[in-house]
């Protein structure tokens, strides 16, 4: 059994501001044949969990920040090979989701670049650190995420899809990054989120959303979006896995991606 490897049919360019830094950036995605690589200046780094350098508020490869939304778009579109070239050190935040990436890449089309044997998952992957849990097993694309804030609103949200690739474009990609209202002063003090505004970041007040949500459970959907992008660092198609994640962030996601990669190694 094998799966099809594919890349973009033509070069695609995005421009915007870095999600956290607010620095203007131009990003060009070129067709590729050797996995997913990111380039900035003299640095060229492969998108694998071993190359992740930081997971504080985003996922960073070497000196290149906030790769998770694009990696999630690649995962949802089943793009296995691409060269991502940047002229600044952080990917554009776009509208805070993966929707613009997905729409533009899908419109550009894809090219088949070969077949690869389906990876054999030799054991179930389970990560638990306190209340954070990630379970990954061989499956057919059934993914579930549970977002929890305890006694604070919204309490518990869950989002589940039986076939993540089928649901990705309409039900997951548009979900935006978000913040709790009490975190905003700290976010501003740390200089984060400078590439976002009230339309591209959802704010969770103590009794409800402070701006218009795209989905009633948008935070849970966005956390699943992030998890898909981080776990895709393992190089395993989403449709071959069943995943349940609870209260996980980038740090746990990337740890699980490394465990998944090791669990499929020959």
- Based on CA atoms alone, the radius of gyration comes out at 17 Å
Shape: globular
CATH superfamily label of one domain: lpxc deacetylase, domain 1
Secondary structure category: alpha+beta
Instruction: Give the helices and strands as they follow along the chain.
Output: EEEEEEEHEHEEEEEHEHEHEH
Q: What is the highest CATH level, the class of one domain? A: Alpha Beta
The count of DSSP E runs of length 2 or more, i.e. the number of strands, is: 16
Question: What does it look like?
Answer:
By secondary structure, this protein is α+β, with helices and mostly antiparallel strands. The protein has a domain at 2-119: lpxc deacetylase, domain 1 (Ribosomal Protein S5, domain 2), CATH 3.30.230.20. Helix content is 24%, strand content 32%. A 5-stranded mixed β-sheet has the order 2-3-8-4-5, with helices on one face. A 5-stranded mixed β-sheet has the order 10-11-16-12-13, covered by helices on one side. Strand 4 and strand 5 form a beta hairpin. Helix 1 (68-77) packs across helix 2 (99-108). It is globular, with a radius of gyration of 17 Å. The mean pLDDT is 96.
């Amino acid at each position: 059994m094998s799966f099809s490897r594919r890349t973009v049919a033509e070069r695609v360019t995005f421009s915007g501001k870095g999600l956290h830094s607010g620095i203007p950036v131009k990003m060009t995605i070129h067709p590729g044949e050797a996995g997913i690589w990111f380039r900035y200046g003299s640095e060229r780094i492969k998108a694998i969990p071993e190359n992740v350098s930081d997971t504080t508020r985003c996922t960073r490869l070497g000196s290149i920040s906030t790769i998770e939304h694009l990696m999630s778009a690649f995962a949802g579109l089943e793009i296995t090979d691409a060269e991502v070239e940047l002229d600044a050190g952080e990917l554009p935040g776009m509208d805070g989701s993966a929707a613009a990436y997905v729409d533009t890449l899908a419109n550009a089309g894809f090219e088949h670049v070969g077949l690869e044997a389906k990876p054999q998952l030799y054991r179930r992957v389970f990560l638990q650190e306190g209340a954070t849990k990630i379970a990954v097993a061989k499956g057919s694309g059934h993914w579930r995420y549970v977002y929890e804030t305890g006694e604070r609103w919204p309490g518990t949200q869950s989002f589940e899809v039986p076939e993540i690739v089928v649901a990705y474009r309409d039900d997951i990609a548009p979900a935006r990054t978000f913040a709790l209202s009490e975190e905003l002063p700290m976010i501003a003090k740390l200089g984060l989120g400078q590439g976002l505004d009230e339309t591209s970041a959802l704010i969770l007040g103590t009794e409800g959303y402070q701006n218009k949500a795209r989905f009633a459970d948008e935070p849970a959907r966005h956390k699943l979006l992030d998890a898909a992008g981080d776990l895709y660092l393992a190089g395993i198609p989403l449709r071959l896995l069943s995943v349940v994640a609870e209260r996980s962030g980038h740090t746990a996601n990337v740890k699980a991606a490394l465990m998944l990669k090791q669990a499929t190694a020959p």
